[in-house]
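User: quick one, fold this
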Amino acid sequence: MLFEQSQHSKDLLDRLRQFMKEKVYPLEKEFESFTDENHWVVFPQMESLKSQAKEAGLWNLFLPKDYGHLSPGLTNLEYAFLAEEMGRVLWASEIFNCSAPDTGNMEVLAKYGSEEQKEKWLGPLMEGKIRSAFLMTEPDVASSDATNIETQIQKEGEDYIVSGRKWWSTGAMHPDCKLYILMGKTNPAADKYVQQSMILIPRDTKGVKIVRPLKAYGTIDSPAGHAEILLDQVRVPKQNMILGEGRGFEIAQGRLGPGRIHHCMRLIGVAQRALELMCSRVTERETFGQKLARQSSIRIDIARSRVEIEQARLLTLSAAKAIDEKGIKGAKDLIAMIKIVCPSMACKVVDRAIQAFGGMGVCQDTPLAGFWIYGRSLRLADGPDEVHMYQLGRNTIKQWSK
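Assistant:
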């Protein structure tokens, strides 16, 4: 088979589907209602769900097998199937300790962190005792080009002083967020790809100020949220530097590649569920004397959606397999392709489902509005469409002009 799974992977997927069916879907509306009224409070049943996930062996599923004892023994390809299943409910991945940005931050620490950093931060993150945020994007520059980043990280004795302003720091509003991984400049005079560094900043460090939570399309996205953060002469010890000065780009590439697979597979789960909801809806509603399911325009929308979902799924699985076989560098073009394709595909499929639901599709009675916001936001997160197209076009010209 082109995308072969081990028996271990299949067993995990079966258990995950059963867990979602029995424990997650029944709580979906209760979760939404609770977070609407309690923005920065954790859903009361979340800890119980996490404990049950641990007991079921559905915990920290995301690290591939080359991470040894930290991994559940899956390849990137095998985890992709699990990520799609989790994506069917927007908040479900947290139950299994597989939600962004924690997964990316844990991978950074596992791959590049010192033993001291792993003991202090990776352990609690993998146990689900704390959460984290990733501080890269800035309000005053186009941060999709990381060479634009202005936040300064300056050496002073045995410490670093960090000053700057970040925003769209996802997860920073979560009450359990205790750690920021920040990308800033340590040497603005160096070559543009070795100016940047990544450093660990505990949330409660003096000089860290959350300016405000940011709304995404009018929603607060609680309890994780997205924050604008001011860093005013924030002092952290030199041992908080990850890997070394000037290694920020290197770390970012290692962090973002697998994370984009996770995002895209979750988007495919979003689109697949939207399609299923649409199919159920059109068999129940009538217009002009017949079921919506008999309308040719509806059938065309459903057929087109199914085709687009399957195309995106196969492309993303190909990218995951390429990472397993060739590494992130060898898979870079496929990773760019899925980041271009999957968010736009999900937006289109969800939009068709919303249209079939009518007024119900844009209110809280279905997850569709949240699905659309998620997909549209990811056309910007981890680099906008245009950046990936620019790079993919450049690489394609290089390849075929020879």
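User: anything notable?
Assistant: The domain at 249-401 is CATH 1.20.140.10 (Butyryl-CoA Dehydrogenase, subunit A; domain 3).
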